Each structure stands twice: as structure tokens, then as C-alpha cells.
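Record 1 of the preview.
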Amino acid sequence: MTRCFTMAVVLLTSVRSVSAEEFRFPERSVPGADLRYIHGIPVLTLSGSPEDMGSQQTTLAVDPAKEAYTFPRQLLKRMGVGDTGWFIVKSASKTVLLNGLQRHRAELNQILAKTLVDPDSVTVSNAFLEIRRLGGCSALIVEDARTNIDGPLFGRNFDFPSLGLLQKFSLVTAYQLKDRHSFVSIGFPGLVGVISGMNDKGLAIATLDVYQSKDGSAKFNPKGVPLTWTYRRILEECETVDEAFALLKQIPRTTWMNLAVCDKQRGAVFELTPNTVVMRRPTDSIVSCTNHFRMPELSVSKGGHRFQALEASRGMPKVGLKEMSERLHATHQSSWTIQTMIFEPKSGRIHIALGDGPTSSKPLKVLDVNQLLRPRLASK
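->
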């Protein structure tokens, strides 16, 4: 763990600060899909078959984001990983992605077939969260009894060493599906899986890295399904925290992660490894999460100042958007904090800031998930 944090500090201090720039996506539409800006936030809307959606996002987001796909190789070089290491990462990525559902593989395969970007970089990007440890995210869920709105609040910072590059390519993607729950994903172009998102039933999720586990499980299980793809499946198939937990337990897992989950009524944190899945429920309607397991079966370290900053919400009689924003900003990690969001599962709203970090210091723009998922585009 010490080595991981030492590397993180080196990466953080070596990143050049960059002036604020607009996101790198042109507004454009194709049959069944478009990319537009809502309150300055880039929003990609997709519809149709998995192959349709793969083709749509290749044209509208992946190819315009060619520069972003240099990121995995750049980051590995910063970590001292050479050509041999890149080959190993590519092989591991291809192996684990084969374990995903056919519909998700079909979408990715269409991107790989159509894109002008290096296919190996697209493949590695889709498995990158499974095979490295560098994130430092924070999440806070406050249930209805402790909020000053009608329903729970779920706040989240996505922290990652952007190398002065990745923050330019954050993207909101709305998947309009006919035979499963439609959902909104906050991530990056060409990622088939979900890092953060909410579906049409108000179920919201966010993943957070974990660095240590007590259960003796492997750090990487090549027989597991990519967790970000499993999280997408949760949004496609589930409506409640309990349904998400039941589904997650059934699917082989690749590595250690926390998954913060909130529906219209309640929230929880799922602590998971290839061997174990446990649910950490709120205490007094509040549950905080950073990059540590806290359940007795898995916990090695209880967390540090970021966790305590989130826990300070327990001293508040009620938590609203202002208080949630303040708690998220208290946990920011400077240029690493490139996405900040607050979900309102009951109303279907997301308050969001993307771009140069720390995004927790920026005004949050409101996106209406119900409107984003309302069919409005002509299909092929």
C-alpha cells in the first residue's frame, strides 16, 4: 500500500497544471444518436441495438477523443511499465473482457471494428479499472430521514491522475434501451462499463478503488466479469439496493472494490473481492465511503482524513445540496478530482461538474435523467 500511495504522490506532483479548456467533442448527430451540450456538459445519447450503439459512439465520441486513448500508455510509462508490461496489460484486458455478457461484447466489438483509434488502447481502457490501483474517490449517501429534500442524496467525487489530459474527455452518456432499464453513465468515451450512473428507476451507483483486503483473495481474478460491466448490468436490470446486491453476488468478480449504491428509499456500500461480497448499511441514515473496506470480514485500515470529512455530516441536523457539496469539497484531491456529482434518486436529477480539478469547487449543473432517457431520436 505504501508503494501505491508513493507512486500516487509522484504522479500527482508531476502533472502539469493546464488552463481551463472546453471539452473535446463536437456537437453532431447520426441516426438514433447525438452529442450535444447541456449547461456546458457534453451529453451523448445512444439508442438501438448493441451494434448500433457501438457504431454511434465511435463516430460521435470515440474518434473525436483519439487523444484520450493515449492516456493508458502514458500512465503506465509514468509508473515505469515498459513494452513488456504493456503486453501483459493488453493480454489481461482481452482475457477479462471475454467474460462479459454477449450484448456488452457486441457493443465493444463494434467500436473496435469501426474506430480510427488504436484498438489495443480501446481494449485496455475498458479493463483499466480492473487491473490497476491509483484512484482515490469519495462517496456519501444520506437517506431521506436526514436530508432537507424529498428523498435521499448521494454525492460522489471521482478522483484519478488525469495527467493533464483525461479531464478534457469526461462525458455523460444516456443509453435509451427498449428491453432493459435505460440509464445515464458518467465516464469517458468508448467505455462500455459504468463508473458512476443512475437508471430510469432512480437506482444510482458509484465505484471506488480499494487497496487492501483481509480475506486473502487475489488482487486480480482473470475468470471474473469486468466489474464496470457488472455495474452496468445492475443499472440495466435492477431497481433497488437489495436487487443490486443479489445480482452482484451471482457474478464472478475480478478484483477489490467498493460500490456505493442508492435507490429512491435507501443506500448502502457493497464491499467486494473475488471471494467475498458484504453490504455495509447506513448508521443513522448516513454511510460514508472512500478507499478502504470497513466490514470486519475485509477491513485492514479504517480510512483517513477524507473518510472523517464525510463523517462530519453526522453532526448536521439535516443535509441538503449545500452541505453535501461542502463535504465533497472537503475530500477533494486537487487536480485528481475531475468529476463531482450529487444524485437525487427520487427526483431523477444529477447535479454535476466535470473538467479541470478540483471539480468540487465548481458550480454544479443540473441534468434531468428522465428527460435524457426520453426517446426523441429517429432510429435507423
